[in-house]
Design a protein that fits this description.
single chain, 215 residues, alpha/beta, 8 helices, Rossmann fold
Length: 215
């Protein structure tokens, strides 16, 4: 089978990391070749950029600078990790990609959507995921989950977005749902308010359908 690029999106606390990891284990158990990655980060250089982007101390980071840092991390990620894995025939599972930039920096921060799309075209060369799983959850519930996770797991150093107000996260969620309405064949919405097992059953079904369509 040729390579497959699957991304996971959603607001803070929607359970992306858990679902990506569980899907990777399930696919590998069925004999699939899988690589798992994330944004921002995914490479040594990208991980350095991630520290800047997610550090709560960087409150003065301007939205345009934030946008360009995400673009820089993505450019490195594509060159070093994503494209080689797709070329090698692997299933690439990525925690966030271009839709996150549209949702967070576009709908959330209020930057021009057309400008963001133009920049992303330069970075990605038009690469789009074969499938995007959008884990949708009420913004307040997800934010509460994320803040609790950061506190219990010692992740406060990556909590810059969790410190933003609920109105920001509601704009992000609405942005994601707008993107899903615009591209329903690629972006599949899954109710993430349920148990991890229930969510994973839906995720695996959707992914299996996508993989079958590629064979």
């Amino acid at each position: 089978m040729r390579g497959c690029f699957i991304t996971f999106e959603g607001t803070e606390g929607c359970g992306k990391t858990t679902q990506v990891s569980r899907l990777a284990e399930s696919l590998q158990a069925s004999g699939r070749q899988v690589t798992q990655t994330r944004e921002p980060g995914g490479t040594p250089i990208g991980d350095q950029v991630r520290k800047i982007l997610l550090d709560p101390a960087n409150k003065a980071l301007h939205p345009r600078a934030e946008l360009l840092l995400y673009a820089a991390s993505r450019a490195q990620h594509l060159t070093e990790r994503i494209l080689p894995a797709i070329d090698a025939g692997l299933i690439v599972l990525c925690d966030r990609f271009s839709d996150a930039t549209l949702a967070y920096q576009g709908y959330g921060r209020g930057l021009d959507i057309g400008v963001i799309r133009s920049l992303d075209q330069i970075v990605t060369g038009g690469l789009s995921p074969h499938l995007t799983v959008l884990l949708d959850i009420d913004a307040a519930k997800g934010l509460s989950r994320a803040r609790g996770r950061n506190s219990s797991a010692g992740l406060a150093h990556e909590g810059r977005f969790e410190e933003l107000d609920l109105a920001f996260h509601e704009r992000v969620r609405n942005g994601y749902l707008t993107l899903a309405r615009q591209d329903p064949e690629r972006i599949r919405v899954v109710d993430a308010s349920r148990s991890p097992d229930e969510v994973q059953r839906d995720v695996r079904r959707i992914v299996d359908e996508a993989l079958t369509a590629l064979t």
